Amino acid sequence: MSKNETYFKTNKATWNEKVKVHSKSEMYDLEAFKNGKSSLMPYELNALGDVKGKSLLHLQCHFGQDTLSWSRLGAKCTGVDLSDEGISLAKSLNTELKLNAEFVCCNVLDTSQFVNDTFDIVFTSYGVIGWLPDLKPWGKMIAERLKNGGAFYMVEFHPIVWMFDYLEGKPLMRYGYMQDEVIYEEYEGTYADENSSMISKEYAWNHGMGEIITALTDAGLHIDYLKEHNESPYNVLPDLTKNSRGMYETKDKLYPLIFELKATKV
């Protein structure tokens, strides 16, 4: 087993445990979701607009809330995730809510081995690419799964955010913006429930903006736009303050917290 396969195995075990914790958490608010609340945030809703009748592939979908939210808006959705616990819950929710999404359990880099269809939209969001050691195969897979003229859209935490270690309750700059070495963290709890007794064991990688864009353009995608924002829809970092729009930001606003990128297969 290669080093990366060992890392993926550890991450999968952690995400299987996270599904159990997150599905009961206030952050994911599963009951409200079942009763019709969308889990999608303003950025992605504004970016993709009317998805009715469009096919949509959701990469790294966790237990499917966003996938099923797109499905409720009329998209024909397929969700992919590494966690079999996550995919199992997603399938169960799909059945319970009488939606028509499909879910596939696999490493996102292997998507093309398990999903043959091409899509109008490929979508991914919030805390996803850091689990991947190399973005070149990721970009190639996205291009393979998009129809000609199809759109790839991602909204993600900014690479600058991952230069910091947050485990001591405040951001300490510890990691390189373009660091090649894997980052290992082990801590109690999870971003959705800091009081959980679960132990998160995680291997992750930092990817700068240049690497992200180059992985997509090398695969043949045209970058439509890149937007950076000082605010995040999620209160997942220490000492963020809530602004008038209900978003969270750092007190000094010295660096962006998230970015949006949209690209087209030409």
Structure notes:
With about 270 residues, this protein is of the alpha/beta class. The protein has one domain (about 5-160, about 205-265): Vaccinia Virus protein VP39 (Rossmann fold). The chain is built from 8 helices and 14 strands. It has helices at about 5-20, 30-35, 40-50, 65-70, 85-95, 110-115, 135-145, 210-220; strands at about 55-60, 75-80, 100-105, 120-125, 145-155, 165, 170-175, 185-190, 200-205, 220-230, 230, 240, 250, 260-265. A 7-stranded mixed beta sheet has the order 3-2-1-4-5-14-10, sandwiched between helices. A 3-stranded antiparallel beta sheet has the order 11-13-12, with no helix packed on it. Strands 6-7 form a two-stranded antiparallel ribbon. Helix 7 (about 135-145) crosses helix 8. The chain is globular. It comes from Seonamhaeicola marinus. This is Class I SAM-dependent methyltransferase. GO terms for molecular function: S-adenosylmethionine-dependent methyltransferase activity. It holds the Pfam family Methyltransf_11. Keywords: Methyltransferase, Transferase.
